[in-house]
Request: fold
Amino acid sequence: MEFLVDMVTTVPEGTSGETVEDTKRREAARTKELAAQGHLQRLWKPPEAPGEWRTLGLFNATDEDELRQVLASMPLHVWMTVAVTPFKPHPSDPGIGRPAD
Reply:
């Protein structure tokens, strides 16, 4: 099943720059692992408001519980607010290889 995940990251005030950079490095490594496992399909950077750190991601998981586990494995998750939208295939979708309902 595919999910659109809107992730807004807010770094707590007073967090050291070193901690932020280390967490971002670990996040990048974990993102590559999730892509290799087939969980993460795409990431986008939508227009952001000043001071906002936002990412949209297209994820694959068997269900929302598995998706929540995947998201929890991401190092930035402790600073994220996420909104999840599950997708089902549309009968008129011209895409090839879409998962069956």
About this structure: The first helix runs from residue 17 to 36. The chain is about 30% helix and 30% strand. The CA atoms of residues 35 and 41 lie 6 Å apart.
